[in-house]
Every structure is written in C-alpha cells, then in structure tokens.
Amino acid sequence: MSVRADYYETLGVRQDANADEIKKAYRRLARELHPDVNPDPVTQERFKEITQAYEVLSDPEKRHMYDLGADPFAPGGGAAGFGAGFSPFSDIVDAFFGGGASRGPRPRARRGRNATIRVDLDLAECVFGTTRDLTVDTAVACPTCSGEGSAPGTHPVTCEVCHGRGEISQVTRSFIGQVMTSRPCPGCGGFGTIIRRPCPECDGDGRVRTRRTVKVRIPAGVEDGTHIQLAGEGEVGPGGGPPGDLFLEIVQRPHPIFERQGDDLHCTLTIPMSAAALGAALQIQTLDGPATIDIRPGTQSGQSIPLYGQGSSHLHGPGRGDLVIHVTVETPVKLDAEQEELIRQLARLRGEESPPGRFSPGEQGFFSRLRDAFNGR
Ligand SMILES: [Zn+2]
Ligand SMILES: [Zn+2]
Fold first, then answer.
1. What gap in Å lies between CA 186 and CA 159, rounded to an integer?
2. pLDDT at site 169
3. Which one of 11, 14, 151, 352 is separated from 136 by 20 to 30 angstroms, measured CA to CA?
4. Tens digit of pLDDT for each residue in 235-260?
5. What spacing in Å lies between the alpha carbon of 196 and ligand 1's midpoint?
6. Of the bound ligands, which one is closest to the alpha carbon of residue 204?
7. Which ligand is nearest to the CA of 139?
8. What integer pLDDT is reported at residue 372 of this predicted model?
C-alpha cells in the first residue's frame, strides 16, 4: 500500500470525531484557506488537501473504507469500493460557499393563494349536513391573455440585462475575501423575460378579480371550528399558475337549548317536585322532531336521561352521538296556606317532620367522585 495521507491529522480532529466535529473543523479551515482569500499556490494545495480529507471523512462509507486502510486519492486508484465515479470535490466547496449551480430565472407562473371563508351554520345543519351556495371573491385566469400577461398577439421577450438568466452576478468582498454573489435581475424582476406590452385587462398579472358562486356540500357532523378543504377552489396563481385551495371555516350559531360536547348533545330539563315524585311524560322538540320523555316516579335531581342516537352524526364514519337530558328537580316556592298544609301533612305521613337530613360520606358526592377520579377508580 502506498503512503497515504492522514486525513484526521489534516483536519486536526481525533480518530473518533463525529460528523459534526468533522464538519466544523473543515469549515473553519476552509475559511482560512479558501482560494478566494489566499490565492498563493501553497495555500491552494493545502485547501485541496483539507477538502480531500473532508470528502472522505464526511461520507460514512468512504470513512469506513479509509479506516480499513484504503485511500481513494492515493496513486493507483485506491481500494475497491472507491474506483470510478469519485466525484470532484468542487461540489463540497459549492455546498459550503453557495457558489456553483445557478438557480436560473424564476417562473412567472406561481401557485395561487389559499382562501378561507367563514360559513355560519345552525346546529341542525352541522348535525345533518347541508349544501350552500357560497359567493367567493377570488382571482381567475385572465380571459384576454389566458394568464400569460402580455397583450393579445404579443409574447414576453428575453431580458437584455440578464440575457434570460433572471439573475446577475457580482463580485463582492466578504469575511472570506472576494466572493461571487448572485441576485435577482432588477431589469426583469428575476423572470428572465419582460412583458413589453402588458395585457390591458389584467395589467400583466395574468389574472382578474371576480366574484363567483361555489356550490359546496357540507358533510354531516361538522362542528364549530371544523375546516373543510376544497382543493383547487382558491385563487388562481399569477402568470397562469395553478389555483390554491379554498378552506371553509365552520362557525356554529349557538342553539337555544342544546349544547354540543363531542358528538353528544346536552340539555337541562327542570321539572316540579311532584312530577319527579309521581312520574310524568314530557314532550321535547329534538333535532329529529318531537319526542316523549318518560320521567319515572322517584326521579332525582341530577339524573340524566339519554336518548341514544339522537346526537350529532359522526363526521368520520357512520352513527350518531346521544342526546343527554339532565334533570333538575325544582323545589316549590311561594306556597299558599293550603299547599303548605298539604306538604306538612305529607311530611307527617312520611315521618319527615323534624328531619335530621342525611349526611353521607359522599358515595355519590362531588368530592368523592373527584377523589375517585384522582385515584383512578
Ligand atoms: Zn390579461
Ligand atoms: Zn433580467
């Protein structure tokens, strides 16, 4: 094996240096030794050495081969695995110093912006879905120039400042010395072409603003804050570019009775004490129409009555949530003499004349539920 360079020593890193340390070491040396900073032949030779070293050590596979004793740059072609196709190291220099590949002119045609419109819906429309004709103020491709931006019969011409490249290069001084920088051509705005006679209708933009109506189907189960994406229904792009997307933001108007939590609907029903004790049948107007709720004798305040499948449709997948009716029992107030006497009689019959009340450790109490929640019961 030929005498090979010690790449670790060249970069001044340890044998077990990680990728980041190797990169940092190379970057530091490259700033010192870059030919733009130090054009003398000795420095240039040294720059070549560190770049070779970096090329090998920054590539895990090449580094592994090198550690096994191969040297890709050694006379004679090095070991198997390197062979043909070993890239010139200028790619690495370009990667660090931003030189090399030109970006070229930027296209006039760009994707249009997304648009968002707010859609106000009633609860029933969210639950069951609906269809809306939405008026959208948007940009569409200019019919006169078909989006190209130049007056009918003319076309964009090549920019004379940048000769169609879209950028101009400049040599400037920086911390690493003389460097070449590129910036968008001021003559054509980076497009590489100039529209000499802009389309009179769109003034060269390639689009005109218009108001159009979009018919949209809003799926069952949407809720306040849901976003619906309509691909390609946004603004058309400048220069005939593809359109952006249209987003519908759902805003649900509050319902006078039902409150939505997930796909369940909740409401509170207040009933008199006598109905709670004796039982009753009550009419309720659900989103599906009238329904009868059966209040069983002995219903307690705080009990809930579920109407299964009467909540909101699930947005994803079949089925619906529930409608949950939370019962509150109202204690009678403003009793007249007769009512008061009847209740006293009832109390006597039930042995509740001087009730001790019933204090419990809270099996059903708020604090015990809270405690159970904390204990994971
Ligand atoms: Zn036009
Ligand atoms: Zn130009």
1. 10
2. 84
3. 151
4. 999 888 899 999 999 999 999 999 99
5. 13
6. 1
7. 1
8. 61
